[in-house]
User: Fold these one by one.
Assistant:
Number 1:
Amino acid sequence: MSKLVYKGCDVELKYNPKLKNTYIGVESDKKILVKTSNNSYTYILNLLELRDSWIQKQLKKQKNYLSLEMNLEDEILLFSQKYSIDSEEATLLRTKLHKLRISSPQKIMKCYDDFYKSIATNYLQERAVHYAKVMNLSFKTIKYRKMKSRWGSCSSLKIITFNTELMKLKKHLIDYVVVHELAHLKHMNHSKDFHAFVDMYLPYSKELRRELKYIKLR
């Protein structure tokens, strides 16, 4: 594994002689990943030039993404607002952190995850009950867990699962996810009827969906 620089971006190279093709990926607005069986820098730079139009487009998209990261032990991110770890909003988290006998990055992150799950359990339950009543729908139960690839899900058994990372988003985006998952109780797909149903309760759902796409899950 080695690195080079291409037009101001770090290029991480992963060499594997067994690869039949070369793969290019854009991981951030400053990082490009290249997996290849050819370890010639000249070959790689030429390939990047050939794919430059696509690469620049992907880099531009990355600049629009919003990150949910924060400085652990210094702040929390709640409803898209950052608060000091000493704030009233972080009281529950401070309590959890103070109980740690041995402080490690993994245990600190576990405290954060537990904190967001606790907040989510109360807040999302209230929002789901509210919108279920408005939409004339009923669910069996709600589950809460940290997920890396989706904001929520709804099963055919009427079990809704919400990503606890939702607590870091703006409240109108949280409501969109709640309505979206509840709508699956009626339409178990993403058909035109499904989107029309969501639009009945959130007229600007298309804009909200687009806004949500630019938020990175970690």
Number 2:
Amino acid sequence: MKLLTRDRSFYKSLITLAIPVALQNLVTFLVGFADNLMISPLGDSAVSGVYTAGTIQTLLQVFNAGLEGAVLILASQYWGKKEMPAIRRIVSIGLKCSLLFGALVAVVCALFPAFVIGLFTKDASVIADGAEYLRILSASFLFFCATQSLIAALRSVEDTRPGLIVSLISLVINVSLNWLLIGGKWGFPALGIRGAAIATVVARVFEFLFILLYLVKIDKTLKLTLPDLKGFDRTLFRDFVKYGLPVAAGQLVWAVNLLANTAILGRFGETTLTAASVANTMNTLAFVAVNGLSAAVGIIIGKTIGAGKTELIREYSYTVQILFFALGLLSGGLIFCIRKPFVGLYRGITVEAAKEAIRFLNVLSVTFIGTCYECATLFGLVKSGGDVGFVFKNDTIFVFLVVLPSAIVASLLGAPSWVVFACLKCDQILKCFVAVVKINRFDWMKNLTRANAES
């Protein structure tokens, strides 16, 4: 039994695919981070308001990632068989579903922003700032959904460069407009929170226009056309629902978990919400590399299963487990070492919020070890390997029977906010024990493609 595969193509593909995906995720993260950091001089209520409104963006992103995951799982297996017509029809289905959900969220947030923010906090100043930001931000939701769906389609055929380029463009536009509009530079009005929201909307529009131009003028692999987007394949739609629904539902569970996290911590007040904003920003930053590598693992596994080379999967799975456990130890140690300098970047927050953020980061330095391992194994291997229902069931059990109940009980008993935060993150460690058993049973390898999909 080889604990580390000697197949050099695995490592080459892992790095080649992971670096652009990780960098794209990093740049996408920096777009939101720029809003938080450049807003911080306006005070705790502004940071909390943007963070709370950003939770809705995260909800959209998480659920959309479920639809993207369904596209990736099916399309990457068909990519292993080089069946391009089937891939294009799957992409069309995923894009339509994504746009439908994005439109629904955009309408609700545009019409009732104060109500939406009020679900997470009762602080009047946070609600006012968050609603102002969310009302404008909602205009970007459709563009965001379309862009991310098309990037996922390109990833499924191992074209990861456009996602990185489009994110870099978005970052430059967002940061530049933030500088001009938040504080008012070069004769522009000082719009504060509204300026940050406008900058994000403009950046999202340019993202979409670039990816559309790439597909029309540059792409030579996917070759997506307007007739492909207009068509509808009932058979593949049934497959998309059958295998994609558990993926999307799993992401919805996580979206509910994120919303509940904000609501539970929001009861502690503005200071705790600000601290949570800082800590979760670090969590997202650390997750960038892990997510990129996990996505690369998923593409490799899906392609390998689609090509019928299941004998390689055992070697790959042992290698993935060792690599990502080591990465978890390294990442956890790094979070602990840089936690104080990172909090120091937020110049406008109170001393109390900064101290609380450091306590939250102490918790993350431990739980992130588990995040690395379970993300790569449960998402990169099990889900992409075809056992899409298991991850959904596992997440549902942990979120609703462990994470949320423990956090609610702890808060009702008057536990400190960092203890409640630890309860909200405890599944990252606990799920590792489930992952070890599941992975090494090797009952998750399933070919989801149809023999006659070309016709």
Number 3:
Amino acid sequence: MNFELTASMMCANYGNLEQEVKNLEEGGIDSFHIDIMDGHYVPNFAMSLNDLRYIRSIAKKPLDVHLMVEHPNNTIELFIKNLHPGDTIYIHPEAEYHPSTTLQKIIDAGLMPGIAINPGTSVENVRMLLRIVKKVLVMSVNLGNAAQMFLPYVGEKYEQLLAMKDRVKFDIYWDGACGADKIREFAPKGVKGFVLGTTLLFGKNKPYGETLKAIREMKF
């Protein structure tokens, strides 16, 4: 079964970030997930623009940049100019007065436009934006920290989006508390990719390649 795996780099070992990127790429990761938090939209600070810039300079695989910031339109150019064509930027529609304006800037820069949907945000609230984005990142946990509990009611949201994706033309990605059980259930249904953090990938005391190979070879 064909699905994408992306590494949540806020969970990486920053004592040797260059080696982490190299090991993940050699192990078969598809992309690097970059969580940018401003301490306002979410109650935490995570990765910085400098972290993004450094990882982009050494990584061969694409970056998926998740902007958990207030009014991303004010600073979107700072991120755009440090990315390559084919990289993705996700914004939260609730964080911007006119999210379509910010998404258009991402499109005009040759990047992949995406929206991230909070657990408490309904599909109805973002329905119109689904027609202009390429990717939808569905949060299955509340924003701000790693290793949080899965919110079971989010499963219904995935089902709603899966029923729409082929007609409206967008791909769905899973972010938060991603265990093997979630991949087994939702990859066959059509979820395109999964963000891997401490639940499956990081802190397991085994080579990343071994972990990623085992995930891809799971029985469905």
Number 4:
Amino acid sequence: MKYIYLILSLLIVTTGMSQPVFKPTIDDALNKYGFTEGKIIKGSDTIIYYLRKYKTKPSKLAVFIQGTDTNPIFSYKIKNGKSSIYRWFGNDYKLLDSTYTYAIIPKPGIDGIFNDNEFSAPNEYYKKNFREYRVNQISISIEDIIKNHLKKPEKIIVYGHSEGAAIGASLANKNKSITHLGFWSGNVLNNFYEFSLFNRIETLQGKQSDSLAHDNILGILDWYKSVINNPNSTEIDHFGFTNKRWFSYEKPPIDDLLTIDIPIYAVFGTKDESTPIETAYLLPIQFMQKRKENLTFNVCIGCNHGYVEKIKEKEIKHWDRIFREFILWTNQK
């Protein structure tokens, strides 16, 4: 009899060990955070967007455009046999009342949910991650949301951060349904010029020699020339991007912003390590020069690229405050 008990015990243990770990689905993530998925078929392309759930159709829409990173919208981790779901966007959607819904459109090829420990951007991302595709993708999503999810639309807000700001500026020129634009920590001038400027700033700060800065800038100019000479290449460079992506951002965002007539809310951090505050001040100057009065220009003193202010060992996060002020601003414009 004791042998039977031993065999049964071994079977139980073996069965327990062989049980597969639960891997969350996109529906699990959407349910956790209160979102739903929209899907649009355009020829051979499928466009996905995620929309905050609502009980009654809202009249206002806020659309967030992500920055440069290849982060998915939703991901999960497995630890000690248990899975945890995460989102790669902030609390902004929680700060809106029921008259709003909130949308975020994943980058090409990165819709769904991914294992953090195994994630790498798919080929589709590198083929389609350029400004024109992203602008079209988001514009189509906005129109679908307006048609199917809004009642008597009164406000369509688009705000982008970093690379998303540049996309938003082009998008506002294309999509006339947009009523308010947020341009957050985006480059104002050509990327390659701003990379060169950072080298000069480091020289002034004593972080590198004058000659090294000059050599670095010559290298940046050679890099820019190589992009121009092969603008459609989807080969991945050492930054993790393609010539096609770099080339699509050749036109400086200030050119788009100066042709937009809807209200624009621009905000920058004075200690931004990715977007030089020095070029940001060109925006209000150029708007005044063109006698345009639709720009609201703000800075977050002492803040980095994500609006975090560091005071000694303490960090003060300003993003939520800036978002609340942004939404209040849209009520006044």
